[in-house]
From TrEMBL:
The lineage of its organism: Bacteria, Pseudomonadati, Pseudomonadota, Gammaproteobacteria, Pseudomonadales. GO terms for molecular function: chitosanase activity. This is Chitosanase. GO terms for biological process: carbohydrate metabolic process. It comes from Azotobacter beijerinckii. GO terms for cellular component: extracellular region. InterPro entries: Glyco_hydro_46 (IPR000400), Lysozyme-like_dom_sf (IPR023346), Peptidoglycan-bd-like (IPR002477), PGBD-like_sf (IPR036365), PGBDSf (IPR036366). Residues 254-308 form the Peptidoglycan binding-like domain. Pfam families: Glyco_hydro_46 (PF01374), PG_binding_1 (PF01471).
Length: 310
């Protein structure tokens, strides 16, 4: 069994692979051309195509405390049907981004990804005889990224059994086998992901089998400090209406900005809910004010915010 810190470190490595962040990007929304998973969301990038995104959102919307449950619930039948038109639904994408500010969504993702990926990886690693924290991270990565079983069998065929090679020797052989498989894969989008195996190889070369902190993976620090920080891009304030929003030298960021952007998005306005009040946000506010016969200042006061934030 890994310690709690070793588990968080192993998960942080895969978070870095998936979303280039130590804690994971809970609001990450991506659609990669050619990706069979189609619309992808969350800390460990679960997909529409696999059906796991439907499962995640069903769990979230069933929680009475889910802040965005009412807004996301109408989409659930389409997620269940794997409606690929959701790939291009920009307002849905904005809803998903905004939901990351909700602690209920973050907790739902943590529990879901632990159940769907970590516990599965823990079980198959234990059955195969892999016990080291770094070895567990390698298995977890393949559970999230896919094809653990086929690459495991290929490694055994090409290099031998774990009992003969020892865990460290076998994991090293597995990483090289998977790297070659990724580099020559028929899917072009998978080939660049050899960086995952290159990162593991560096950890192997540095003898980091216990995942002792601090570590640097792909240029990002994994330490006690970074593991206990606030997830990137998540806001717990200020509350809507508690301040006026305007374009300024130091851009306003926060929950109130995100919810104003989401209100504009619900009206069909082309804006991304990134929680940052920049040039685009000011322009959209100005256009909205003009459409409503209001002074087109580009400044959102408490009254305007109340109109936009339901």
């Amino acid at each position: 069994m890994l310690t709690a810190t070793q588990k968080k470190t192993a998960q942080a490595i895969i978070n870095i692979f998936e979303t280039s962040t130590v804690l994971g990007d809970y609001g990450s929304v991506t659609v990669i051309p050619g990706d069979t998973g189609h619309l992808t969301f969350g800390r460990s990038q679960t997909t529409l195509g696999s059906g796991n995104l439907d499962d995640l959102l069903q769990r979230y919307c069933s929680n009475p405390g889910a802040r965005f449950g009412v807004k996301l619930s109408p989409y659930l039948p389409r997620f269940a049907a794997k409606d690929l038109r959701l790939d291009g639904d920009r307002h849905l994408h904005n809803l998903l981004r905004a939901s990351a500010d909700d602690p209920v969504m973050r907790e739902t993702q943590d529990v879901f990804f632990d159940l769907v990926y970590w516990q599965v990886a823990e079980r198959v690693a234990g059955q195969f005889g892999i016990t080291s924290p770094l070895g567990m991270a390698v298995v977890y990565d393949s559970t999230v990224h896919g094809s653990w079983k086929s690459i495991r069998d290929r490694t055994v065929q090409q290099s031998g059994q774990l009992a003969a090679l020892g865990e460290q020797g076998w994991i090293g052989a597995y990483v090289q086998t998977r790297r070659q498989w990724l580099a020559t894969h028929q899917r072009r989008d998978l080939r660049p992901t050899v960086y995952r195996m290159e990162a593991f190889q560096r950890l192997i070369d540095q003898d980091c089998w216990g995942l002792e902190l601090p570590l640097v993976v792909r240029g990002l620090e994994i330490s006690t400090t970074t593991l206990n920080a606030t997830p990137p891009g998540c806001y717990d304030g200020p509350q809507p209406g508690s301040r006026t929003l305007a374009l300024q030298a130091s851009l306003a960021r926060g929950l109130d900005v995100r919810l104003v952007q989401l209100g504009l998005s619900a009206l069909g306005i082309d804006i991304k809910t990134d929680g940052i009040f920049g040039q685009r946000s000011a322009r959209c506010i100005k256009d909205y004010q003009a459409s409503q016969g209001l002074p087109a200042t580009g400044v959102a006061d408490a009254a305007l915010i109340a109109r936009l934030v339901a």
